[in-house]
Fold this protein.
Amino acid sequence: MEKIKIGLLGFGTVGQGVWKTIEMNRDELLKNTGLQISISKILINNLEKKRDIVPGAGVLTTNPEEIFEDDSIQIVVELVGGTDQAKSYLEKAIEKGKHVVTANKALLALYGKELTEKAETKGVQLRYEASVAGGIPILQSIQESLSANRIERIMGIVNGTTNYILTKMSREGVGFEDALAEAQQKGYAEADPTADVDGYDAAHKLTILAALGFKAGIDFQQVYREGIRRITPTDIEFAEELGYAVKLLAIGTEKEGKIELRVHPTFIDKDHPLAAVKDAFNAVFVEGNAVGELMFYGKGAGDLPTASAVLGDIIGVSQNLHHPHPQAYKLDFSNSAKTVVPMEDTQTAYYIRFMVKDRPGVLGRIASTFGGNGVSLSSVIQKGEGEGAVPLVFITHKTKESSVQKTIRQIKELEAVQEVANLIRVESLS
Ligand code: NDP
Ligand code: HSE
């Protein structure tokens, strides 16, 4: 039996989840790993706050030095969130020769390279399984179990809040604002929902997945990002009619050293396994050149699911404590030979919804503008009739983003076109 002492930074949802899991599974942890894991100190913000779990006297502290200066603490687990303060805490812990575990995707997407290099220089481990898709063990699978493969594609529903909102809109026909309000009331979405609904959280996670999966020097700013605020019940109805589900997907592909990275709402074939991922669940679909298609599914957030991943990292670190090269999985930001394809050069199919005057010749003029730009159409639907504007929907074949954008700019100028109401990218099974 080996005794492992932890310093926790943060005792919110995940920090308390880690505490509860150690209490709940003490025997399993010992039996399965031979480790006796205990939390020695916990850094918090406010000592006066009422807490459901009250650790023993002297465990909670507002002074981080009590953790960094305690030589008996081998592993520091960062669960405070945010970037600047969390970064300086992790740097300090690494500086002190402590191994570090974090669930902080924003921190890793922005400063992963720096932190990886610091950890390597100091010969300590940095692990972060919980940072992508919470309880799903996707990072270790990519880094270890799939390391005999060249990863060709990663497509994930990696944000539970937006998946909950889109599922609710699709099931109940409600608008984005109502679905968001319910997600907030249920505690999925924050009071400021920007990170989730505008796609930042998914883009942070895609940066981490791509750095591991494609071994490429990805800068977070290179990820194309679009959120779900513009999705309406009308778009969801058209998706259903055309045989698609609407999901916020994080998509990374690599072909011949060229990488595509994008987060955006997507029409995905109803038969695709990702289309069946509902509510706040996450899933990551991976294609490797040996293994073929895989899908990882589970809870991407919550106290116990996230703690399961954090504890997996603590165990991994502990089992490597005495190894000479302890860096377990590494964000490889060094390979600059691989380039990220600019969004305008990416190719996909598109759903485009116009609001147009219902007059003879309008459909023909719009269709010929697509054709004039080399954009081939696969289906057209017009709904309604009468004096006001009616929706006119096109699905294109796979085509270049810049050609579609140019076409839309031209169509916008047509007198009969009231509005380009939405453009949503389409992923098919092929
Ligand atoms: P919470 O907001 O629930 O908890 C944050 C904790 O950190 C609180 O205990 C707070 O103290 C403490 N804290 C915050 N700032 C400071 C500071 N400057 N100094 C000292 N203590 C501080 O966060 P979560 O547990 O939800 O999230 C933690 C991390 O895990 C984040 O990076 C998040 O993105 C990530 N994550 C969260 C998931 C989830 O399901 N919640 C899922 C996957 C990842 P006090 O208690 O006194 O307020
Ligand atoms: N806010 C995230 C989500 C949870 O909604 O999936 C933590 O990654």
